[in-house]
Description:
The chain has 246 residues and is an alpha/beta fold.
Amino acid sequence: xxxxxxxxxxxxxxxxxxxxxxxxxxxxxxxxxxxxxxxxxxxxxxxxxxxxxxxxxxxxxxxxxxxxxxxxxxxxxxxxxxxxxxxxxxxxxxxxxxxxxxxxxxxxxxxxxxxxxxxxxxxxxxxxxxxxxxxxxxxxxxxxxxxxxxxxxxxxxxxxxxxxxxxxxxxxxxxxxxxxxxxxxxxxxxxxxxxxxxxxxxxxxxxxxxxxxxxxxxxxxxxxxxxxxxxxxxxxxxxxxxxxxx
Length: 246
Ligand code: AP5
């Protein structure tokens, strides 16, 4: 996909990945970073960092996350706002928004900087397959690169493809039982956002049961399609932002 990234690395789009646990949001967000130079914003990663750091937000979120529920809108919006400060380029929102209140807050936050959601991608999958995906998942302890016992093994066993690290970890909420609760939370509170973004005319659907590379290709097609009239006009091109003297 190197040539894809070179072609459209300047797109300042705001892309949302919607989908249940295991749909591949994190996997594809990292690939979109590589292919298009977009910045991944994962509220799950932000909350896990807060838990690991023992911050007030992390202390409040820990038990809810381990039980498979949704952390309060107030806490999630707090960590996201902090992370979004000063980010002017293209964004991939991975795991956010997850409630109607979060979607409305995001619209307001983006409007404040003259932007909007350019595409919300519903990653469509079968619930049963998601339990297997989540329960087999692990990541590099050094760089966070994601792997799976069956679907995505490192090229060299026991060694991270990206950073060469040899330590891996599994998430505390990646048990089959908690994954079922997270799936339920998705259907109850997040799936209704599909209608919200359909009404805004920015909804795209992707078959996320396909292979990782096939899903990557489908998302690349969507991002390339934003490189035109549908895209919020940027104040300056990425080249100009990177080289203000231009
Ligand atoms: P979060 O970290 O966002 O987890 P999630 O939404 O449950 O999603 P996952 O990370 O489990 O799955 P994914 O879709 O990223 O799949 P992945 O690419 O890893 O949130 C965790 C918790 O934080 C929540 O439960 C909640 O408590 C809290 N939280 C976070 N955001 C919140 C918010 N906005 N509001 C409130 N609370 C919030 O893929 C899974 C595995 O499958 C991997 O091993 C991968 O290699 C493999 N795989 C991926 N794609 C494919 C494919 N196409 N074929 C085969 N295997 C594949």
